[in-house]
Design brief:
This is N-acetyltransferase domain-containing protein. There is one protein chain. The protein is an alpha+beta fold and 103 residues long. The chain has one domain: Gcn5-related N-acetyltransferase (GNAT) (Aminopeptidase), CATH 3.40.630. The protein is built from two helices and seven strands. It has helices at 46-62, 75-83; strands at residues 2-5, 10-15, 18-27, 33-40, 67-71, 87-90, 95-99. Strands 1-2-3-4-5-7-6 form a seven-stranded mixed sheet, covered by helices on one side. Strand 6 and strand 7 form a beta hairpin.
């Protein structure tokens, strides 16, 4: 699985040459990006969603993104984000933050 940049903020998730999903990385100031409109095809299992977040986190590191933000709309996504070292930054808006570690 890999990420292919399609437009300024639009990215495709691909397996081999097949598009299996897409998402947007919107600029959020000071080198940060917000993940929005993440959609995956029906062929992607629930377990593979974890791998997709890991892939996006690795991509953020490669692209020198400082922080990733995600708005959650479900308890199951909250659990997944917490597992991926995202921290709940805004409880009211359910906004999670991942600080990208650059070594």
């Amino acid at each position: 699985m890999y990420i292919e940049k399609v437009e300024e903020e639009l990215y495709h998730l691909k397996r081999e040459s097949d598009v299996i999903g897409n998402f947007r990385l919107l600029k959020s100031g000071d080198g940060a990006r917000k993940i929005e409109k993440l959609h995956v095809s029906e062929q992607v299992s629930a377990g593979q969603v974890l791998a997709i977040f890991e892939l996006i986190q690795a991509y953020a590191k490669e692209e020198n993104i400082t922080n990733l933000y995600v708005e959650s709309h479900s308890d199951s996504l909250d659990f997944l984000l917490q597992h991926q070292q995202f921290v709940l930054e805004d409880v009211e808006n359910r906004l999670w933050k991942y600080q990208v570690v650059h070594v």
